[in-house]
Amino acid sequence: MKKVYLLLIALSVLSFAGCDKKKDRVFEDSSTARLNESIDNVYSSLKAKPAWILNYYPGANAEYGGFNLFPNFTTSTDVNLQGDIFNATPMSTFKVYAGAGPILTFDTYNVVIHYFALPGYYTGNSTSLGIGASDSGMKGDFEFLVLSANQDSIVLKGRKYGNVLKMKSVPADQLSTIVANYKAANVKFNTYRGFAIEVNGKTFQGVPTVATVNATSRPNRSFTLASTPSVTLSYIVSDIGIEFYKEYTVEGVKINKLTYVAASTQYPQGYYTNGANTFKMIPRLTTTP
Q1: How far from chain centre, in Å, is Cα 76?
Q2: pLDDT, tens digit, for every residue of 138-154?
Q3: b/e for 95-125, b at 16 or more Cβ within 10 A?
Q4: DSSP the chain
Q5: CB 72 within 8 A of CB 90
Q6: Mean pLDDT per segment of 10 residues, for the chain of length 289 residues?
Q7: Quick one: pLDDT at residue 15?
Q8: What is the spatial distance between Cα 27 and Cα 7, in angstroms, rounded to a whole number?
Q9: Whole-angstrom Cα distance, residue 148 to residue 165?
Q10: How deeply is 257 buried, as exposed, middle or buried, from its count of CB atoms within 10 A (0-12, 13-18, 19+)?
Q11: Which residues are CB-contacts of 69 (< 8 A; sequence separation ≥ 6)?
């Protein structure tokens, strides 16, 4: 009887182990299938809507502010990239492959995106090292974990530095006009040398906005306000105003985007404001108030 009891226990253990192995195989297969499906979904989204605006933030903490990049995925391997501070429209390649999830990588050199990953020594000239440290530059990513993807928007996370970035699709036949509008807004923005910030009537003076690189104004689209508490804001210039990296709270006012209001007698350079008109960025043409 004892032998029979031991035999039944042994069979039960073997049966349980067999079930576990079967479950493991099923889980492994379904996990791989889900990852492959996610990769296919990214490719199909890019194929359905090939033209995009990428709000790109370099820096480990988005400390340089943002730049608009305009990828146009012309084939399943080729991408044309433009940027609001670049005149070039270089073609390079991309791919989506399996990692911790689907990974979108710009896998051959393209100055429009790899510029932000270059050491600062290479982004200037013989008299100016450029933006960022000479050995690490602006710490920009060119490989991204795809957090979500559909034909309207794709959310990315920099694989090395971890900034969360957003891409939104635009009509391909309108891309050239959209790029021109963003570049025009960027040129106008680059004429500013600082801002006064008004929050509920309280003014913060002397907020810088630009750094000079290669005798060309390049916006440092980030600034710190001595508010209560102090806050550092990173933002990007759009064709109609300013969008922030995330929602910020300044003196109790929550902001995520501002719209440009045209020049007037009171505001000769115009200003950027939120919908409630409780937060204003007022441009200056000099570095002093």
Answers
A1: 22
A2: 899 999 999 999 999 99
A3: ebeeeeebbbbbeeebebbbbbbbebeebee
A4: -HHHHHHHHHHHHHHHHHHHHHHHHHHHHHHHHHHHHHHHHHHHHHHHS-BEEEEE--STTSTT--EEEEEEE-SSSEEEEEETT-----EEE-EEEESSSEEEE--S--HHHHGGGS-GGGSSBTTB--SSBTTTBT---SEEEEEEE-SSEEEEEETTT--EEEEEE--GGGHHHHHHHHHHHHHHHTT--EEEEEETTEEEEEE--EEEETTEEEE--EEEE--SS-EEEEEEE-SSEEEEEEEEEETTEEEEEEEEE---SS-TT-EEE-TTS-EEEEEESSS--
A5: no
A6: 51 50 54 92 96 95 93 97 91 96 97 88 57 82 97 97 97 96 91 90 77 45 87 94 96 95 95 96 81
A7: 53
A8: 30
A9: 11
A10: middle
A11: 53, 54, 56, 81, 82, 83, 84, 112, 113
Rg for the chain (alpha carbons), in Å? 25
**Per the omega criterion (within 30 degrees of 0), is the bond before 208 cis?**
no
β pairing state of 253-261 and 241-250: antiparallel
- Global pTM value: 0.84
Which pair of structure tokens corresponds to residue 130? 């450029």
